[in-house]
Every structure is written in structure tokens, then in C-alpha cells.
Write a structure and sequence with these properties.
GO terms for molecular function: NAD binding; NADP binding; oxidoreductase activity. By secondary structure, the chain is of the alpha/beta class. The protein is built from twelve helices and nine strands. Strand 1 (6-10), helix 1 and strand 2 (29-33) form a beta-alpha-beta unit. Helix 11 (238-254) runs antiparallel to helix 12 (260-277). The longest helix is centred in the middle third of the chain and has 30 residues, at 169-198. The radius of gyration is 20 Å and the shape is globular. Bound molecules: NADP nicotinamide-adenine-dinucleotide phosphate (NAP).
């Protein structure tokens, strides 16, 4: 392997496209595949080779990065890629796949001789575009020389949580962090919906809490998206957030922890999606407070 690993990016949606772009800009050789090829095509201008199949993308690659919808999608796509995977390559699994499928993902890696890195990321579209994600990573020390340039290109910081990707320590931390993200987003939507219902100007609410311990950046960010009607393009879509809320509820249940807020959040997101907001930013969970569109 040369100093700069060859990286295959499987999945160039909101996050994967931004990550692939930063890998190109860091001088890595990038091949990208996406189910909907049109979304990968713009990466060609950055120097990436766009492929028609996952197998073509991973052939001979030093690092395979998966950034797909969920764990089942990852398994499906990796099975398609399987004949061309190079034994000894590193697999950086960054999709938010939760903790349940980690055993299957790690088993796939073992079967195909891949070094498995459980490596979800914290941060949304804008930090992804700026190469300033936080990578939560667990995986063997042996392959770190190959994965470090990848993590450095997509993230501002890598938080190592262990050396055994199969133990899922990074994915478990990611679920904990996302439970906070989703709770804040849901509370933001409900608070603004209540303000609307009660005829309270949201600016009065912000003036009331401004600068105090109840104020926070994420509240401001998600309120801004909603009040300034910037729901599309989404940074984190309603349907993807619902998927994460359900992963959190399921993980809690498996460990004997009841999560009422996450459960209600999943239902609010599902209702917003049914109202037609599925591809909008998750701030659109706000609309679940009303019968109609708003
Ligand atoms: P996205 O834009 O919807 O991308 C999803 C990707 O999965 C697309 O490449 C999509 O392909 C692909 N995909 C979906 N179903 C597929 C299938 N059956 N077969 C093959 N490919 C399939 O979502 P995203 O926001 O980038 O999220 C990607 C992952 O990162 C998710 O696990 C999400 O939870 C996680 N994440 C997101 C954020 C965020 O803020 N957005 C932050 C951290 C982590 P098509 O283009 O063909 O649909």
C-alpha cells in the first residue's frame, strides 16, 4: 500500500457525498458508488472514479467506507461487493446501523478477511462538507495506518472507543449521542408548535432564554431551519431520523431501558413523514403537532 490509501465510498447521499469530496481533496484515490448514480456523478469533477457496481468500486481498495441508510442496506451492498473485496482491506462502517446488527457486520468482515472499523460519525451535512465531523471509532490497531488518513480527511477529531469493532462500542456511543440530538430536536419542534398554538411570538421565547442556561446552539439551529423555511435540502432527513429513533428505542429495550421520549419522537417523525415531510430536515417533526400541513 502507498502512503495514500485507495478508498471506496459506498453510498454518496447527504453525508457520503460530502465525505467522498473531502477524501478527494485530501489527495486520496477515491472510487464512489451510489444506487442512484446521478448523486455520485458530481464527484467525478473532484477526481473520484464513479462506478456502476459496488464490486467495481471495492476492487483492490485499501479502505472501504460504507455510508448507507441502515445496517441492512450495508449488508446488502457489501454482499454485492463481496467477490471483489481484497482480503486484508480495512472496512470503515460509518452508517448509523445501531448496535443490534453489529454482530452480523463484524461476521461479514471476518468471513471476507476485512479489518472491521465500527466508525459512525457525529455531525451533520455542514460539518461533513467542511471535513469537520467527529469520528467515533473502534477497530484493530493493525489497520490504523490505512484508516487514519480517511478519518483525518472527513473529521476534525477521532474518538477511539476500543480496538474491537465487533464489540460495537462506537455504535453504542453514537446511539447515546443521537438520543440527545433527537430529544433536543423533538423538544424544539414541540416548543415552537406550542408557541404558535398559544399565539406566543417565538422571538419573545428566545429573548426570554437568551444567554441563560436554557439557551443552546442546537435549539437555535433547528429553530432557524424551521422559522426561516430552510427545510430543504435536508441536513438530516425526517425518515433517517425516524430510523435512528427506532434504533435507539430498540437498543434501550434490549438493555432493559424504557425510552418514552425516543419512542414519542419516532412517532412524531413518522407522522411528519406521512404528512409529506419525509425528505425535509428533521426539524419538520414540528408539523406532527398539527393535523394538517401546519
Ligand atoms: P441519505 O442522503 O438518505 O443517504 C442514504 C444513502 O443510502 C444513499 O446513498 C442511498 O442511495 C443509500 N441507500 C438507501 N437505501 C438503499 C438500498 N436499499 N440499496 C442501496 N443503497 C441504498 O442519508 P444521509 O443523511 O447521508 O445518511 C447516511 C447515514 O449516515 C445514515 O445511516 C444516517 O443515519 C447517518 N448519519 C446522518 C447524518 C446527517 O446529519 N445526515 C449524520 C450522521 C450520521 P440513493 O441515493 O440511491 O437513495
Amino acid at each position: 500500500m502507498s502512503d495514500k490509501p485507495t478508498v471506496s465510498v459506498l453510498g454518496t447521499g447527504i453525508m457520503g457525498a460530502a465525505m467522498a469530496r473531502n477524501l478527494c481533496r485530501a489527495g486520496l484515490e477515491v472510487r464512489a458508488w451510489n444506487r442512484t448514480r446521478d448523486k455520485a456523478e458530481p464527484l467525478a469533477a473532484e477526481g473520484a472514479r464513479i462506478t456502476g457496481t459496488p464490486a467495481e468500486a471495492v476492487e483492490g481498495a485499501d479502505v472501504v467506507l460504507t455510508m448507507l441508510y441502515d445496517g441492512n442496506t450495508v449488508l446488502e451492498v457489501m454482499r454485492e461487493a463481496a467477490p471483489a473485496l481484497r482480503r486484508g482491506a480495512a472496512w470503515v462502517q460509518s452508517t448509523t446501523a445501531g448496535s443490534e446488527l453489529i454482530t452480523d457486520l463484524a461476521a461479514f468482515a471476518r468471513e471476507h478477511g476485512l479489518l472491521f472499523y465500527d466508525a459512525p460519525v457525529l455531525g451533520t451535512k455542514e460539518p461533513a462538507e467542511a471535513g469537520r465531523l467527529t469520528v467515533l471509532a473502534a477497530g484493530p490497531a493493525q489497520g490504523r495506518a490505512a484508516v487514519t488518513p480517511v478519518f483525518d480527511a472527513v473529521g476534525a477529531k477521532t474518538l477511539w472507543t476500543g480496538e474491537d469493532g465487533a464489540a460495537g462500542s462506537a455504535s453504542r456511543l453514537k446511539l447515546v449521542a443521537n438520543s440527545w440530538v433527537l430529544a433536543v430536536t423533538a423538544a424544539t419542534g414541540e416548543t415552537l408548535a406550542l408557541a404558535k398554538g398559544l399565539g406566543v411570538d417565538p422571538r419573545d421565547f428566545f429573548e426570554l432564554i437568551g444567554g441563560g442556561p436554557l439557551d443552546m446552539g442546537y435549539l437555535r439551529a433547528k429553530s432557524g431551519v424551521l422559522l426561516e423555511d430552510r427545510l430543504t435540502p435536508a441536513s438530516f432527513a425526517v425518515t433517517t431520523a425516524e430510523k435512528d429513533a427506532r434504533l435507539i428505542v430498540a437498543a434501550g429495550r434490549r438493555s432493559g431501558v424504557r425510552l418514552d421520549v425516543a419512542e414519542a419522537t419516532a412517532e412524531r417523525l413518522a407522522r411528519a413523514a406521512a404528512q409529506g415531510h419525509g425528505q425535509e430536515d428533521m426539524a419538520a417533526a414540528y408539523f406532527a403537532s398539527f393535523d394538517g400541513k401546519d
